Amino acid sequence: MGIVSYGRAITQRAQEDPDRVAVVCGDKVLSRALLESRSNRMARAFTLRGVEPGRLVTIGLPNCLEFVIACVATWKCGAIPNPISPRLPARERSGILELASPALVVGFDDLVHEYPALPADFEPPSESDDAPLPDVVSPHERAMATGGSTGRPKLILLRVPAEYDPERPATILTPKGSVLVPGPLYHAAPFGSLTQGLLTGEKIVLMRRFDASQCLELIERHAVDQILFVPTMMHRIWRLPEEERRSRDVSSLRMVLTGSAPCPQWLMRGFIDWLGPDVMHEVYGGSERIGGTFITGREWLEHPGSVGKPTRATRIRILDPETRVDLPTGEIGEIYIMPAGGPGSTYEYVGASSQATDDGWESVGDMGRLDADGYLYLADRRTDMILCGGRNIYPAQVEAAIEEHPAIASSAVIGLPDEDMGQIVHAIVQTSAPVSEEELRTHLKERLVHYAIPRTFELVDTALRDEAGKVRRWALRAERVGG
After folding, report:
1. pTM exceeds cut of 0.90
2. CATH C-level class of 262-383
3. Residue-wise pLDDT tens digits, 398-423
4. How far apart are alpha carbons 343 and 326 in whole angstroms?
């Protein structure tokens, strides 16, 4: 197979082995042949409703077989999938749709008078043509939507056509058996896992929603060999009773990756001890694909806390966030990356502008440092950093220490205005068992410098992170201080 469009690659996989399972979700299964047939009929239905090459199709569906069919149909039209959360607040959804100006919206029944739309349960007539369509290449693989750290929506259009080259896979996720996708498909990493699984023709095990117990059961049942977790998922698995975790057969796992947020050292070390240093890996990189890093479990043990060295000829610099002057080795600053293909080669924003230096080094707003060996260590998002009495405090580090306590399910640390200190550290904590503020402070005194220990705690019983492990600190801050 030479370089082909995504649609043609999926067609060829169906022709090679039509009965092989393509996607499993709950008790529903799509064979390669059924995926091919249903996506061809859906693509024709899209075309009849005005979908043309280069236009966006907004997909507002949960993780399900219908999402996969709609996505493949979009590629087969030469259009661009724009997955968004089906539970977005109306205002945020409207902002994204205004930017996308989609040719079609799938999944939001209340939008029929605003945009051409199909309901979530739409099925083309069974007698409609399911033969392969004329081949066409989408100019952009995907258009992911994000609110970033500010809450202002933007789209990330990858400057990569939807073409598949089997000699040069686009990701390190190249499954050989079964790949489990535990996260929501409207986020970049799970969407990438789905895409690569479809193109390589391997079985995709799709979770509707993440559940720690079910996750281990699916790994055992489907002999999953690859999976990408966000740290929140790892945390929930680790909080299962040890006898339950140990009783599951996870020996099929060949590569487990974590990414999308800083992984606490204690948690990464626990997973390495459990699964082995040759199985656990960590990655870093934004949805913009300007570059990233990768580290094996064995390397991590030698450089604990690191997310690795740059991959694919990526170059990294650490600059002062205000002056954009290079900082010395070991000093925390803003992470700037030069893509292997040069400035502006990987993406374009719709609704925002990039944070680039005059010579084209780009930042997505993350803070970190490099050690003497060139390994990168993450701190936090620049916009989330708390300045308290002239000291920089990184919420992710405080949250990692809080969540090491066995009674904590999740946490979010924000800065609240303070006349004396500028900001104070405020911790919003979701508990899974009774715990006092005094107990939390004692726990944190052993793990944090004194000025990073939260001044105030707010105990809640609702989840603070979404299905992808993301926390919207800007929204939590706005709820408490306004604006």
Report:
1. no
2. mainly beta
3. 999 999 999 999 999 999 988 777 88
4. 18
